Amino acid sequence: MTQETLLWIALVVVLLLAALLLLWNRQRKSREVETEISTGEAEAALAEAPSVETPSPFLSAPNGEPDDLRRIKGIGPKLATMLQELGVFHYSQIASWTPEQMAEVDSRLGNFSGRPERDQWQSQARLLASGDVKAYERAHGKLGPSA
Description:
The chain is an all-alpha fold. The protein folds into two domains: 52 residues; 72 residues, no CATH class. It is 63% helix and 0% strand. It is built from seven helices and no strands. It starts with a helix and ends in a 7-residue tail after the last helix.
């Protein structure tokens, strides 16, 4: 092949690469615009949607006999009293907290903040609410004397 032929081939390859690059860039920009539009539509829909409030994790009074919250490791007499004053009386309440409700309770615990997650209150409460003492003791150790 002559040098002139090689130059023409190189020119065609460069032009093809430039065309491919332009096409790729146009598609990328098109996807960005579509994403911005769909994101804007989603944000607008969320703004128009009625807000759903997270139900309170607290009760005004116990439903029947309150549970002995001190059976949950990490809850002593002081914390049990504090929880009852907040409106937490039952294992089933603790077991069913959403992450938002857990955060709300945690924000009200003062110096005890962080205990619900660190001491795995929900896991303990689920097992205590179910009455499965063996599963509780396998997961969290022996229940104390109030058991």
